[in-house]
Structures are given as C-alpha cells and as structure tokens.
Specification:
7 strands; 8 helices; alpha+beta; about 300 residues; Methane Monooxygenase Hydroxylase, Chain G, domain 1; about 60% helix; 2 domains
C-alpha cells in the first residue's frame, strides 16, 4: 500500500497525488507498487527489495542523488502464536529530490503517530523528519524494554513458587529479545553518528542540534538494554544453579533411602539362605532378626540426620 502526505501547518495530511506529496509511505508494497516507485524516482531496485529481509543491517547508502538510510526498529507481536513477542526489523528511509520515502515490510508502530496526524506541529524538512523517526524508534525501544522488564519480574515471581520449564523458556525468549534490541540499537547508533558528520544533515541547522538529543535517547536505550540483559543473564544462571542444587538434594535423599532400605534387605537375604544361621533354633528368631533390621535402619537414619543428608 502506498500513502501520500503533504505538509499543512507543521503536520502531515493526506495528499491527492504524488506531485504534491512530501512524504510517501510504502507499507508492505507489492511488486507493482515497488516498480512504480522505482521508475518514478529512478531509484535502485535494492533500495526497496533489500528491506524485505528481516535481518537487513542498518546502513547509509548514496546513489544517483538518492540517500537510503536503514534503521532497525522495535516490533511488538501481540498474538500468542508468535515465537517472540519483541523483535526488530528494518525500516527504510529514502531522501530523493524534495521528498522523503519510508518503506516497511513489517508491522511497526513507529510511524503511526505521523500517519494519523497526531504529532505535534514542527518545522518539517527531510532532515528533521528523519531524526523524528529515529527519536520515535528510541522511545519505543525504551517503552518495550520496560515491558520486557515487567514481564521478567512476573516470570521470576512464578519461578519462586514453582520451577517449571514453561517459565524458563519464557525467560529465554525475553533474553533473546534483549539481544536483538541491543544489537539493533548499537547499529542505529553507528548510523546516527555517521549522519551527524554528514553534509546532508548539516544543511538543516535545527536538525544539527536535534541529532544530539536523538543520540542521547538512543544511548539511554542501549544502557537500559544492557542492564536488563545482564540482570536476566544473572537470573538465568541463578535459576540454573538452583535447579542443579535441587537435583543434588533429591539424588542425595534417594541415595540415603536406598542405603537404609538395602540393609534390612541384606539381612533378610542372608537369613533366607539354606545354611546354619544364628537364632534358627530360637522360637523368637523372626522377631530378633526383624528387631536387628529395625535397629540398624534407625541407626542409619539418625546418622544421616546428624550429617544433614535429609
């Protein structure tokens, strides 16, 4: 789908034709829409098709008067069937002629504010809008990181009550999401630092000042992602140690029970032999043997209790 927007009093409003449009947004475009845009603005085909790859890295590319900036943006999958609730995906931003083109093949909330014209009015230029998108991405990273932290705390509370594989797998998924976030934020930081040194961005004095705020916000998201990742890694290690310790306790208990049971079994086996044995002529032989077995077992139980095997 292709959407056209023009500027009206510092906001984006729908445009009728592409001629009057300043911002063109492609949301999961089909082959015909991609071909139309490439021919209309004489763009390299890989400017758009590369964005279909969910693992496409952040980068800046210049070619024939067009500038392509790819950043990694956070995505939240709300449906339960998703393997990961929090992921990252590429968002392409193309500056060509007097227009800015955004291309996304994945469902991201980053541009919703501008698509619905709910943003605050600002002086819209190619440079300022590019930085606004990067700022929104950093804000959403922080928002989703807080949600990951909240979910992690809930899982931790559940694990305190019962060690189950289900909760541990959920923690592993949270850890995987944090790795994606950290990697994407660091790659975005490189792009922002490169843009900060570019002549194209410095053509807009306000954008030159604004990029400092965007870089700071991005760094805050990186720090938060690293902190949460470290906490989650430590938590996973702690729970792994607890599970291992619990297993050792259970094995020690079962071994102790086996030893306690084996001694009466050994005595009963000996007295089951067809040979001359003590007490066999005694009328109370059975009671004596059983008494000895019980005394030996009780003695072992007391020894194990003293050594804290139970």
């Amino acid at each position: 789908m292709i959407q056209y927007f023009k500027i009206a009093e510092g906001r984006f409003v729908p445009a009728v034709t592409h001629h009057e449009a300043f911002w063109i947004h492609l949301d999961s475009p089909n082959g015909d829409e991609i071909k139309t845009l490439i021919e209309r603005y004489d763009l390299p085909e890989d400017f758009i098709t590369d964005l279909q790859d969910s693992d496409e890295n952040s980068r800046v590319e210049y070619e024939d008067g067009a500038t392509l900036i790819i950043i990694r943006v956070p995505i939240y999958y709300r449906h339960r069937s998703a393997s990961l609730s929090f992921m990252t995906a590429p968002l392409g931003i193309i500056a060509v002629q007097d227009k800015l083109i955004t291309v996304s093949f994945y469902d991201s909330e980053i541009l919703t504010l501008y698509l619905e014209a709910k943003h605050r009015p600002f002086l819209i230029t190619q440079q300022s809008f590019l930085l606004q998108i990067n700022l929104r991405a950093a804000i959403y990273y922080l928002k989703f990181l807080k949600e990951i932290n909240r979910r992690t705390n809930n899982i931790e509370n559940e694990l305190h009550q019962s060690m189950r594989n289900k909760e541990l797998i959920r923690l592993l998924r949270m850890e995987k999401s944090l790795v994606y976030f950290s990697t994407s934020l660091r790659s975005n930081e490189i792009i922002l630092e490169r843009l900060q040194r570019s002549r194209w961005l410095n053509q807009d004095p306000e954008a030159e000042d604004m990029i400092e705020d965007v870089i700071i916000e991005n760094k805050q998201a990186i720090e938060m992602a690293n902190i949460h990742s470290s906490i989650l890694s430590g938590m996973m290690d702690a729970f792994a140690s607890i599970i291992s310790n619990n297993l050792n306790v259970v094995m020690k208990f079962l071994t102790s029970i086996t030893i306690i049971i084996s001694l009466p079994t050994l005595i009963a086996s000996i007295y089951g032999m067809n040979v001359h044995l003590p007490f066999q002529e005694n009328a109370y032989a059975f009671a004596i043997v059983m008494g000895i077995s019980v005394l030996v077992s009780i003695s072992l139980v007391l020894i194990f209790i003293r050594k804290k095997y139970f």
